[in-house]
Amino acid sequence: xxxxxxxxMKMANGSTxxxxxxxxxxxxxxxxxxxxxxxxxxxxxPTFEQVQEVLRTKISDAMVKxxxxxxxxxxxxFPNLVCFPPSMSMxxxxxxxxxxxxxxxxxxxxxxxxxxxxxxxxxxxxxxxxDVYQTAVLEAKERALFERYLKPYRLKTIGFEATxxxxxxxxxxxxxxxxxxxxxxxxxxxxxxxxxxxxxxxAHTMPQLFDLILQPRGNGVFEQRIPLQARVVATLAQLxxxxxxxxxxxDNLDSIRNELLHVFNQNVFVPGExxxxxxxxxxxxxxxxxxxxxxxxxxxxxxxDDTKQSEMPQTSETRFVLPLLVNVIRMPNGKExxxxxxxxxxxxxxxxxxxKLYRESDHVTDLSGLSLILLNTRPEEEEYxxxxxxxxxxxxxxxxxxxxSNASRAGTIDQHNPFSSPDRTGEKYDFRWGVKHExxxxxxxxxxxxxxxxxxxxxxxxxxxxxLDTLFPWIWPTSLFGIDWYDPRIRDMLWQHQxxxxxxx
Length: 505
Prior knowledge:
By secondary structure, the chain is an alpha+beta fold. It has three domains: 1-77 and 471-505, no CATH class; 90-244, no CATH class; 250-276 and 318-456, Beta Polymerase, domain 2. Helices cover 52% and strands 14% of the residues. It is built from 20 helices and nine strands. It has helices at residues 4-13, 21-25, 29-41, 48-77, 90-99, 101-122, 130-148, 160-185, 188-194, 198-201, 206-214, 221-244, 250-268, 349-356, 379-392, 444-452, 459-469, 472-475, 478-481, 488-502, and strands at 274-284, 290-291, 301-305, 319-330, 336-345, 368-374, 400-405, 427-433, 435-443. Strands 1, 2, 3, 4, 5, 6, 7, 8 and 9 form a nine-stranded mixed sheet that branches. A hairpin with a 5-residue loop joins strand 4 and strand 5 (336-345). Helix 6 (101-122) crosses helix 7 (130-148) and helix 11 packs antiparallel against helix 12.
């Protein structure tokens, strides 16, 4: 007979120390309190089987609630990516589309655009050489597309050739991103099940995708997927195109980021002074491979000066070794603050738009992300860094927004982000420098946890959870691909796959 505590510990840890589905299905504070109250209300000392049954019920309720809420939100923004349940017949689906004014409007606009391209193609003389004719037809269709979107996107300043090139780049990016997501999150057997048809991945223009969407198909499983796959690529490519022609496009954003990084390198850090260090962290397999705590409660992590080491420390299952390039901040008293400066530019913009329900990329506040990782945790260093940033980077009123921290309170850093982990401690805020950037200030142990922890504060697991709830159901709908993304067994399988990928040798 297990006590409640023993049963909960056994369920939480598992054989591979990876959180089972209930860990991220019921991670909200209210859900956890409800779960605790239900367990305590059980008569006597519950058996392990009774605890399992309670957890299964709570998981099911949480999954259904989240699924319905998320589908309602996404339907408002992407009505053409409806995920119809497998139990729905084609007749029922047709009736649903017919009675939905939004969906009917999207279908009519879509067909109107398609026939405009077809009409342009029919004006091309049929007596041309075959290759010349095909090239002329494609250009005619793309010009018709350009003319239709000329005013809404103000494409006159861009021009036809640049628009066509940018749209093709957007399509190529989406093909590449989907492949990257497949390789990052799925074992090979699932990956092959979800790969898009060769005809879709070969399509590199919008007219080709439109042809795939509207071509008559047979009744085969794979053939039925092709129109949906082409529609997904076309829709996401349009979002990517909007991002590429926006003021926040990668070239412009990189230029702004380079100016900002110059300010950090000249006014925040000691110019030209860089150190190389080796971080050695002992990991706790009983706590999801987070940095281990010693008997005094302090983290078992240290950094070594690379110039003073004759050989690299060896990594193992429970030891993480990380070489880092470190910037130096020198205080007036001569003391040095060592900071690892981690920067990134967001790539999968469409995934953020699906999650945040933002159509415009300029509403995404973390297109540019910066992290300052303090190698030491002395309070006076943290205060000096904060003052230094106020005097150099954000020295005008109104530049900082969404400032938040859980350094001195329970809960997550970002209380508005349902996917954020309460086990990640630090400070975060948005600030404006040309565009909005997200800045996080972390200490070394929590930065290491973001790289290796087999839990939500591990970045790969955070990404997996957000994609499970937002992206996967819409680019691989259950009705066509046979995977129920809300099934705890599927979620646990993908979670365990991430554990195996991250597990040290």
